[in-house]
Here is the input.
Amino acid sequence: EAALADLHGARLSLVGQTCKAWFAALEATRQEELAAATVENYQASEKQVRERYERGLRSPLDLRLARANLATAEDNLESTRIRKDGALRQLEILLGRYPAAALEAASALPQIPGKVPAGLPSELLSRRPDMLSLERRLASQRARLRQAKVSLLPRISLSSSTGTSTNELRDIVNQDFSVWSLAANLLQPIFQGGRLLAGIDLADANLREALETYAKGALRAFAEVETTLALENFLARREAALSRAVEQSQSARDLAEDRYARGLDGIITLLSAQRDAFRSESQLLQVQRLRLDARVDLHLALGGGFSPSREEDVTVTSNETP
Here is the structure.
């Protein structure tokens, strides 16, 4: 049963890795599109500066700065293509496909599927595969301790088919211990030095160790849930802030381009506004993907969704609980 729980945990882990790889591929695709659009924007700016330079309206410094900005954008575009290529190949490996970077990824990240509901019961953690595995191993150690204690007693029949005591039981009560060596179903208990008593001590120590391991696993489970819940809140606030930053930086970029075209501002202001707009959009995409990763981590930390589900649980046959 513990091994089955471990198998279920491995499956969940693989699902989580695949989801994150898919989100990484989506973000990389969107980052590539953003980088390509930025290159086009910088090309238009460089062309505008070059034409004005050739007409003697702009200095060589403006032209060189515009060309440097364009070259940096082209380098960033190639970097995003490298990341996209790696993300697609990693996803293909997880899907069992040849890593040819041939998958077609959508150009938009999915939306977070609603807020985390309040009042999640802590009992959800009991369905985590690692907790199920630890619980089954704890039950196993309890069974071993009972077995070790039972081994101290002589294995004889205490009652006959007629409901009365057996001869073996009467002989022991009468202190006729010779019957022990004659009964076919005895396992030579007690008279084996301290071996059986030591076995009980060992089983008891193993049980205590299993209890401590279970407690440690429970603390780890709570820590993972607390961490992912906190991260979800932090990232949600970051996304809101970056959304405002994108809106303002795009407006600032448009204004800077207009003012530069009319000769009201210099090239430095224009290039700074363009870089700020690109950086804020890129960071927003990254945070949106991180929020999706955090939601996957929260589902893994809870061992499933936000409500108990039979399909997500690993069935065990014993009714024992820690």
